[in-house]
């Protein structure tokens, strides 16, 4: 009979296509966790970890620590990058197609929150957000989604205070000192960091009129940060001494590279970042750069901690803490080796 045969064929073709589509992910998952999940008797838990930038050292460190949780508990971790909405939605589809039960997301656009929640509900995926909190169309945080992020205002404040202390040490004249602030105001955690730093700098007596904010455009990498920094540097040729801060190390590194291209001496720049994961490379350089310090965060808590919490949610039914905000440690040339080691990282 033609009908059943046709529908039988359709099903087969769909199944084959679905398997083919999922194949790279299955292979990737096998490589990522040393094959846990594929061996007989291994755990049947599969967890996705989606990040907005697989090239940023911060997210690579998060993944590395999430892998450690996968090894410890024997679940399969599927690490996927998503730089835009389409990639994110198809990553969720792919995870569901390969039988994942949960996903941890740092979305490329936090306003995708409601679509992500809807997709996860439809596909029966447990959802947690990491780093960047998901919001609705009006910018309101989605408080039903467990979230682990950083204490953004507090960490920003320590950046501003550390810059103020270093200005004092160097004895800079206020009138000749400018602050370059590379902002990503559309993401709450980023906005709170730069606002916190600017607030602390102003509280220290820094001339408010010399604080120059400039938007750092997506993709937020060092190249786009160099572009943002060049705008500020071109607009203020009379400034002799620069301080720079941003939502993370890469924003500050962009300013530092732009200042080097203009032959501004390292002793005339105080850049303080956040993350520690890319800033450490400047702290290691034999020659001093304008990248003075960073606030080292804990990729271990963000990567291992979220993956572990998701595993327990799936396996034991224990829901993760609704909101967790981590702290950081100021690192500079003197203490970064020790501080990174204490966080389980390679300096
Ligand atoms: C955001 C930033 C990252 C990192 C993370 C904790 O996602 O873009 O660089 O600072 O928060």
Weakly predicted, low-confidence segments: 1-42
Number of helices: 11
- Report mean pLDDT, rounded to a whole number: 90
Query: Looking across the biggest beta sheet, what order are the strands in?
Result: 2-1-3-4-5-11
What distance lies between the first and last C-alpha atoms, to the nearest angstrom?
Answer: 68 Å
DSSP strand content = 15-25%
Oligomer: single chain
Number of strands: 12
Largest sheet: 6 strands, parallel
Secondary-structure-derived class: alpha/beta
The rough form would be described as: elongated
Radius of gyration from CA coordinates: 23 Å
Helix percentage: 40-55%
Bound molecules: alpha-D-fucopyranose
Task: Tell me the series of helices and strands, N- to C-terminal.
Answer: HEHEHEHEEHEHEHEHEHEHEEH
Kindly describe this structure:
α9 (280-284) links the parallel β9 (269-275) and β10 (291-296). Helix content is 47%, strand content 18%. α2 (57-73) runs parallel beside α10 (299-316), α3 runs parallel beside α4 (113-123) and α5 packs parallel to α6 (188-203). The model is unreliable at 1-42 (pLDDT under 50). With 347 residues, it is of the alpha/beta class. The protein binds alpha-D-fucopyranose. Residues 56, 58, 106, 131-132, 150, 189, 247-248, 274-275, 297 line the site of alpha-D-fucopyranose. Alpha-D-fucopyranose (FCA) binds at residues 56, 58, 106, 131-132, 150, 189, 247-248, 274-275, 297.
